[in-house]
Design goal:
GO terms for molecular function: zinc ion binding. This is C2H2-type domain-containing protein. InterPro entries: Znf_C2H2_sf, Znf_C2H2_type. It is a single chain. By secondary structure, the protein is an alpha+beta fold. The protein folds into 2 domains: 34 residues; 35 residues, Double Stranded RNA Binding Domain (2-Layer Sandwich), CATH 3.30.160. Helix content is 34%, strand content 10%. It has 3 helices and 4 strands, in the order αββαββα. The strands form 2 sheets. Strands 1-2 form a two-stranded antiparallel sheet. It is elongated. Bound molecules: zinc ion (2 copies).
């Protein structure tokens, strides 16, 4: 799983951009747009485990589901990770 590191710049950003920043109440990540925070809360924050398909936008919570997806949709055998 890949996390994007939110870069919070201070100093040269003005007060307006400070006000525009939206922070996740759980992990304190900072977002510029509410929609980004909602997406984060829905798909990232507090999710115990998440598996994403590298080939499309498929996301699931169980590894088995992703493996099944890879086989069905992409005819690929997933890497065995045990
Ligand atoms: Zn969060
Ligand atoms: Zn896929």
């Amino acid at each position: 799983m890949i996390f994007c590191v939110a870069t919070v710049r201070r100093g040269d950003t003005d007060a307006l951009s400070f006000l525009e920043r939206i922070q996740c109440p759980r992990c304190w990540r900072v977002y510029k747009h509410k929609s980004s925070l909602y997406k984060h809360l829905k798909w990232e924050c507090g999710q115990e485990s998440q598996f994403r398909c590298d080939l499309c936008s498929y996301i699931c919570k169980q590894k088995g589901h992703l493996q099944g997806h890879m086989r069905r949709k992409h005819s690929l055998q997933p890497l065995v990770d045990q």
